[in-house]
């Protein structure tokens, strides 16, 4: 059995013996709400394929399917020193990466900086000033001042900007909309590359932005650098997304560039926006609440059902609803004021519940009391455990639909998928649950090995960004200037 193939999880049916009838009925209702069977998965996958194709058309669709102007995989002969900037949902990371011209090899030094919460809803100038400050701190810490002053050429930088952006060039990107809880004024509809470069120029830093990329595209390129069977890059973390290599002839919306139809181009799907029309996804009343109360109602429908940012909130909403339901005695006569605060819980809370190894769920009880100030009895602990399993399982199974849809669209029968993100790496059973869902959707014969395996990715936002910067410079030197705007400093 493959390393990430489906594994049978221990049954806890016997543990429900002492759960009161009213609570058992609520658990049964929740199982009905959150369970996604094989037939529904296939329905979601088939609709997904159509939406991927629609996104590539001139008319477009809910899924942006953004051309990235990354035109090929690395060949292993890339070399040089590069900077990488990763602006994620929680942290800002700055890396210096040395590619030694040996395939699959690299050296990296890096520093992380916390993204202040107030910046996420602040203004544009504050954001870019903070980012430039972090880069300056990194450069000055790792290089002597004299060394910086003597630099004849700028250090090429790959900027991992993990938000939907329209790119007519690889070194430019118009932010379509903020995701992951960000709502910074003065950035949507603007070229984030230009805003970033202006902040660097103020500090006279010897840096040249060579490529603006998405973390998913970086994951695809970095993973293929060390494993040529990688054909899809995915992120399952605060948000969700995927990237894959398409041929230009299958992307009607860039036909006006008159590029060779067989030329490859990486597509950043941004498929967190899948099914914004609410045609096929099995949304629950709790999903509707999350959507309605979000900064962008009606957007990122798929992401709001599976991404780490929302799993804890789903769990919280269900518990509050059960407590307030007079037909069900949950946390009766207890103060649940902490539980009523939106986004008090994140995906790690559910992870800890699912990882509780004790039959009496004592660690779950301690967790509820420590974080929420709630003292739960055994039936309530069983409810929490089952609810966490249901939410986590649904997220993993639906997450696999995007991978399956890309495989079906591209007629990929066997490949590796590079995946990164906190949910993929840390959430218990996520890999096995996703693997089982792929098996059900793609109809692999029983007893055969998984033909598509989702594996831990290389560092896409660091190494991937550096590789894409290297590939861009290489293209300029070869005279392949498709999708490159500012040639100054790249030749």
Automatic annotation (TrEMBL):
<dbReference type="GO" id="GO:0001678">
    <property type="term" value="P:intracellular glucose homeostasis"/>
</dbReference>
<dbReference type="GO" id="GO:0008865">
    <property type="term" value="F:fructokinase activity"/>
</dbReference>
<comment type="similarity">
    <text>Belongs to the hexokinase family.</text>
</comment>
<keyword id="KW-0067">ATP-binding</keyword>
<dbReference type="InterPro" id="IPR022673">
    <property type="entry name" value="Hexokinase_C"/>
</dbReference>
<keyword id="KW-0547">Nucleotide-binding</keyword>
<protein>
    <recommendedName>
        <fullName>Phosphotransferase</fullName>
        <ecNumber>2.7.1.-</ecNumber>
    </recommendedName>
</protein>
<dbReference type="GO" id="GO:0006096">
    <property type="term" value="P:glycolytic process"/>
</dbReference>
<dbReference type="InterPro" id="IPR043129">
    <property type="entry name" value="ATPase_NBD"/>
</dbReference>
<dbReference type="InterPro" id="IPR001312">
    <property type="entry name" value="Hexokinase"/>
</dbReference>
<feature type="domain" description="Hexokinase N-terminal">
    <location>
        <begin position="27"/>
        <end position="225"/>
    </location>
</feature>
<comment type="pathway">
    <text>Carbohydrate degradation; glycolysis; D-glyceraldehyde 3-phosphate and glycerone phosphate from D-glucose: step 1/4.</text>
</comment>
<dbReference type="GO" id="GO:0005536">
    <property type="term" value="F:D-glucose binding"/>
</dbReference>
<comment type="pathway">
    <text>Carbohydrate metabolism; hexose metabolism.</text>
</comment>
<dbReference type="GO" id="GO:0005829">
    <property type="term" value="C:cytosol"/>
</dbReference>
<keyword id="KW-0808">Transferase</keyword>
<dbReference type="InterPro" id="IPR022672">
    <property type="entry name" value="Hexokinase_N"/>
</dbReference>
<dbReference type="Pfam" id="PF03727">
    <property type="entry name" value="Hexokinase_2"/>
</dbReference>
<keyword id="KW-0418">Kinase</keyword>
<dbReference type="Pfam" id="PF00349">
    <property type="entry name" value="Hexokinase_1"/>
</dbReference>
<keyword id="KW-0324">Glycolysis</keyword>
<dbReference type="GO" id="GO:0005524">
    <property type="term" value="F:ATP binding"/>
</dbReference>
<dbReference type="GO" id="GO:0006006">
    <property type="term" value="P:glucose metabolic process"/>
</dbReference>
<dbReference type="InterPro" id="IPR019807">
    <property type="entry name" value="Hexokinase_BS"/>
</dbReference>
<dbReference type="GO" id="GO:0005739">
    <property type="term" value="C:mitochondrion"/>
</dbReference>
<dbReference type="GO" id="GO:0004340">
    <property type="term" value="F:glucokinase activity"/>
</dbReference>
<dbReference type="GO" id="GO:0006013">
    <property type="term" value="P:mannose metabolic process"/>
</dbReference>
<dbReference type="GO" id="GO:0019158">
    <property type="term" value="F:mannokinase activity"/>
</dbReference>
<feature type="domain" description="Hexokinase C-terminal">
    <location>
        <begin position="231"/>
        <end position="471"/>
    </location>
</feature>
């Amino acid at each position: 059995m493959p390393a990430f193939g489906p594994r049978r999880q221990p049954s806890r049916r016997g543990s429900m013996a002492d759960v009161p009838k009213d609570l058992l009925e609520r658990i049964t209702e929740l199982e009905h709400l959150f369970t996604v069977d094989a037939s529904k998965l296939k329905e979601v996958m088939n609709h997904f394929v159509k939406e991927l194709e629609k996104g590539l058309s001139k008319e477009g669709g809910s899924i942006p399917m953004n051309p990235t102007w990354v035109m090929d995989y690395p060949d292993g002969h890339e070399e040089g020193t590069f900077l990488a900037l990763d602006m994620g949902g929680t942290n800002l990371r700055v890396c210096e990466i040395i590619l030694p011209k040996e395939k699959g090899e690299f050296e990296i030094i890096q520093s992380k900086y916390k993204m202040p919460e107030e910046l996420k809803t602040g203004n544009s100038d504050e954001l870019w000033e903070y980012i430039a400050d972090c880069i300056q701190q990194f450069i000055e810490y790792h290089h002597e001042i004299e060394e910086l002053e003597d630099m004849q050429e700028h250090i090429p930088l790959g900027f991992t900007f993990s938000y939907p952006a329209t790119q007519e060039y690889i070194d430019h990107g118009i932010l379509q909309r903020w995701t992951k809880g960000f709502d910074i004024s003065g950035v949507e509809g603007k070229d984030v590359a230009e805003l970033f470069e202006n902040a660097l120029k103020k500090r006279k830093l010897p840096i040249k932005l060579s490529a603006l990329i998405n973390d998913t595209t970086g994951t695809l390129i970095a993973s293929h650098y060390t494993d040529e069977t990688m054909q899809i890059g995915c992120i399952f973390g605060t948000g969700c997304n995927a990237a894959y290599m398409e041929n230009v002839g299958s992307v009607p919306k860039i036909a006006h560039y008159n590029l060779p139809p067989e030329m490859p181009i990486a597509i950043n799907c941004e498929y967190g926006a899948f099914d914004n029309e609410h045609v096929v996804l099995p949304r629950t009343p709790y999903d509707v609440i999350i959507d309605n109360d979000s900064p962008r109602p009606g957007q990122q429908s798929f992401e709001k059902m599976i991404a780490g940012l929302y799993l804890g909130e789903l769990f919280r909403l269900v518990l509050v609803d059960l407590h307030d339901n007079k037909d069900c005695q949950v946390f009766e006569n207890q103060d649940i004021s902490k539980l009523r605060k939106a986004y008090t819980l994140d995906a790690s809370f559910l992870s800890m519940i699912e990882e509780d190894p004790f039959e009496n769920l004592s660690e779950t009880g301690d967790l509820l009391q420590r974080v929420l100030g709630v003292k739960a009895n055994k039936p309530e602990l069983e409810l929490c455990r089952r609810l966490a399993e249901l939410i986590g399982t649904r997220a993993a199974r639906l997450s696999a639909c995007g991978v399956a849809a890309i495989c079906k669209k591209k007629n990929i029968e066997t490949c590796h998928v590079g995946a990164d993100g906190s949910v993929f790496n840390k959430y218990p059973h996520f890999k096995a649950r996703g693997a089982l869902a792929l098996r059900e959707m793609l109809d692999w014969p029983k007893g055969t090995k998984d033909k598509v395996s989702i594996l831990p990715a290389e560092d896409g936002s660091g190494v991937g960004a550096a590789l894409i910067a290297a590939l861009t410079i290489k293209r300029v030197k070869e005279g392949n200037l498709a999708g490159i705007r500012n040639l100054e400093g790249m030749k």
